[in-house]
Design goal:
single chain, 359 residues, TIM Barrel, DNA polymerase, domain 1, 12 strands, binds S-adenosyl-L-homocysteine, ten-stranded mixed sheet, 12 helices, two-stranded antiparallel sheet, alpha/beta, 2 domains
Amino acid sequence: MEDIKSLTIEELTSLMVSMGEKPFRARQVYSWMHKHLVSSYDQMSNLPKSLREKLSAWPLTVLEKLAVQVSSLDGTRKYLFRLSDGNVIESVLMRYQHGNSVCISSQAGCRMGCRFCASGIGGLVRSLTASEMLDQVYRIQEDTGERVSNVVVMGTGEPLDNYENLLRFIRILTGPEGLTISQRNITVSTCGLVPKIHDLAEEKLAITLAISLHAPNDEKRRELMPVANKYSIEELLDACRVYFEKTGRRITFEYSLVSGVNDREAEARELAGRIADLNCHVNLIPVNPVKERTYRRSLRPDVEKFKNILEKCGINVTIRREMGADIDGACGQLRRRYLEDDEIFRAEREKQHEGIFGY
Ligand code: SAH
C-alpha cells in the first residue's frame, strides 16, 4: 500500500493523475497533510466525498500519542508515540528563546550499539518511514498549538542508516506547501557513517551536520562506539572537510564526557590538535547515566577544564544546556522503560498526577 504521506508533491501529483484526478487535487491533499496537519481524510473539507472515499484505501500515517511527560523546570515535553504496527518511539519538544525545537527519532531502536546509549540496547527493530518522522513534528505542533521552528534528528536511531527516508523527510519538511521549515534550522546527527556523509555532501543541503565524535583517537573511540572499528577518525574528519567544502556548513562535533574515560586534559589537547584545521563547533555533553550501563558523568570542574583547553586552542565550544532534567533520564529511556515495564507505565499513566503523564 502506498504510504501517501511519504510522497513528494510531484509523486502525489502523478498518483492522483493516474487515478483520473486533476493535478490541483494533489496540491490540496498535500497541503491538508503537511501544512494543516489533519489526521483524517474526512477533515479535507474541500475535496469531493467521492475522492475522500477513494483516498481512504490508503492508510494515512498518524502517530498515536501514548504519553507525554512535562518538565516543570523549563516546559520541555517528552512524547511517547505508537506507530501503526505497535512499535513505540520517543520525541522531545524543547522551548528555547529562539523558538521551539523538536528532537525526532529516525528508527525504532538502533544497531550502532554505542556503549553509553540507551537506544541501542534492544538493537534495531526497524527504520521509520518519512511520514513517521514527519508526524512526530506534526503531532507535537498540533498538541501544543505552537509553531515548531527547529528540528534535530538526534533521537533514537542512526539517521544515515535510514538515508533515503531521511532525505525524503527533509525535502517534505522544508519544501513548499508544507511547514516550510528552513533547512538551516535542521540538524542531522550521525555516529559517523563515512560513505553516507560523502553522499549527503553531494545533496548540497543547507542543514547542519552533527558528528558524534566522543573521543580524540581511534583506540578510545572503539571502546565507546563499535562504528569506530569500521571507520577511522581520519576518514571521518576527511568526510567532514568535504562536507564543509561542498555545503559551506560548519560541522558540529558532539562530545559526551564520561568521567575518567574521555574527559582528561590530554584528551582535550589531542582533540584540539585533530580538529584545529576544521571549521567547526564542539558541543560538550556531560553523559547522561543509563541504568543498564556503568558510565558516570564528568564532574563540572572537569567539564569546564575540558572546555577551556579547547578554547585556548581557538576552538569554538559550548556545554550543552540540560533541558528537562526532572523528566529526563538519558535519551531513549522513556521508550526502554515502556518496553520493559508496560504494566508499571500504564499504572502511572492512569494516575496522571500534576501534568506528568497527564494528557
Ligand atoms: N545516531 C545518531 C543520533 C542519535 S544519538 C548519533 O549517533 O549521532 C544523539 C546524540 O546523543 C549522539 O551524540 C549520542 O552519542 C548522544 N548520546 C547517546 N546517549 C547518550 C548519553 N547517555 N549521554 C549523553 N549523550 C548521549
